[in-house]
Amino acid sequence: MKNRTLFDYIIISLKGIAMGAADVVPGVSGGTIAFISGIYEELLTSISSINFNTLKLLKTDGIKAVWKQINGNFLFSLLLGIGISVASLAKLISWLLENKPVLLWSFFFGLVLASILFIGKQISKWNISTVLVLVVGAILAYWITTLQPLITEGTSPFFLFLAGALAICAMILPGISGAFILVLLGAYKPVLEAVHNRDFKLIAIIGVGAVVGLLTFSRILKWLFNHYKDLTLAVLTGFVLGSLNKIWPWKEVLKSKIIEGKTIIINEQSVSPYSFKGDPELLFAILLSLAGFFTIILLEKIAIKNES
User: Fold this and answer.
1) Residue 265: beta bridge partners?
2) In whole angstroms, what is the distance from residue 18 CA to residue 35 CA?
3) Per residue in 162-186, pLDDT tens?
4) Mind telling me which residue stretches traverse the membrane in this protein (predicted)?
């Protein structure tokens, strides 16, 4: 566990708020935010340290020893920020998606575009293998963005448990959006409504699924980072690159359906802003894309300065 001040933990909570805001948007990954904010590997290490040995340590050495082993201060600060973000920004993000989608996607497009450069720079050695897995990752992520979501929205306990487990795996992968996975499964609306309505029973079911998925998948990612770091970074870079199709600001809806008074998009495609049927808001879209892009550049420079 690193020696940190109260201010350091406040900064971690702010990073958690950014992660939570990204995870609410169906197309942006909180894992991307974790990576570009410099806490990704520490997050994986902390999560993967939670296992059955933790229970044994609790019995023998007590809560304080367990808290230290799992990097409790870090996890608590981060989860506090994510929780605050999801609880407070869910309605705002929903409103922006409904009323200002071009501007919202523009900001995240610039942010994610810059993160490709950031993640790619972490690869220490480029060769045929790294390029190949980058291309495969990009193709896979692009293919996922073209899938049509399920129309029926399940709310059975087992379905929501499974949805929580799958979505959390995506949330800690840069480039793969957990919220978008929920959309594909048809679980996005039930989850968002559970948060809005403070339906603690549904939230608990989804949460248990998320914990199971998180503890399992984080170990796999941690092992990959320890043994194949460059290849893992390359495929993550590919994931982020391929996901740009999903967050392209200008979309043409090919097929939609009205369910319970709300329009559910079933199929859409990216189009040029000049062939966009609505108001492309091009000037503001470009400005917000640049704002997102240079936000990442600024964060990187701050991180380098702090390390030095």
Assistant:
1) 256
2) 12
3) 888 888 887 777 766 677 777 777 7
4) 74-96, 102-119, 126-145, 157-188, 200-221, 282-299
pLDDT in tens, 141-163: 888 878 766 655 556 788 888 88
Bridge partners of 17, per DSSP, are none
- What tens digit of pLDDT does each residue of 1-35 get? 567 888 888 888 988 888 887 777 766 777 878 87
What does each C-alpha distance from 157 to 154, 161, 191, 194, 207 come to in angstroms?
9, 6, 12, 13, 11
3-state SS string for 143-158: HHHHCCCCCCCCCCHH
Q: How big, in percent rounded to 5, are the helix, strand and coil portions of the chain? A: 70, 5, 25
Query: What tokens does 243 get?
Result: 């996901």
Contacts of 254 (CB under 8 A, 6+ apart): 266, 267, 268, 269
Distance CA 263, CA 186 (A): 13
Find residue 257's DSSP bridge partners: 264
CA distances from 250 to 98, 104, 246 (A): 14, 11, 10
- Rounded to whole angstroms, the Cα distance separating 120 from 123 reads 6
Query: Residues 69-99: pLDDT tens digits?
Result: 888 899 999 999 988 888 887 778 778 877 8
Residues above pLDDT 90, as percent of the chain: 12
Both structure tokens of 283: 């000037």
The model carries a pTM of: 0.73
Q: 165-193 as b/e, with b when 16 or more CB fall inside 10 Å?
A: bbbbbbbbbbbbbbbbbbbbbbbbbbbbe
Quick one: average pLDDT of 196-215? 84
Terminal-to-terminal C-alpha distance of the chain: 20
Alpha-carbon gap, residue 133 to 252, rounded angstroms? 31
